[in-house]
Amino acid sequence: MSMVLGILFTVCGCVWLWTITFFDTPHHQVIGPAILIGVGGSVLIVTALAMGTELIGPHMVSEPVSVLSAWLLIWQFVACIVMMLMIT
Question: From 18, 63, 69, 77, which residue has the greatest number of CB atoms within 10 Å?
């Protein structure tokens, strides 16, 4: 559930940034989307780290968890790149 919430925050922040750049609104309104993307990224990284700690514990056979945490980190990286491209 927290993964979906983190993705939702990040996507909402990216869409908000897109509307700011598309409709040519003042650029001082970037604080709200930056907060959403920051919260979403933090939730995703904490979720990925929590999934990684499951691999260190006694349950070493949970392969799908490591693949999912890797995809979460890739998603966060892509979201950050998209955000940087939207701002510039």
Answer: 69
**Residue 14 near residue 82 (C-beta atoms within 8 A):** yes
Q: Is 26 left (phi over 0), alpha (psi -120 to 50) or beta?
A: beta
Query: Does the global pTM surpass 0.90?
Result: no
Average pLDDT over residues 82-88: 72
Sign of the four-CA dihedral 66, 71, 73, 74 = positive
Domain boundaries, the chain: 9-87
Three-state secondary structure call for residue 1? coil
Separation of alpha carbons 39 and 28, rounded Å: 19
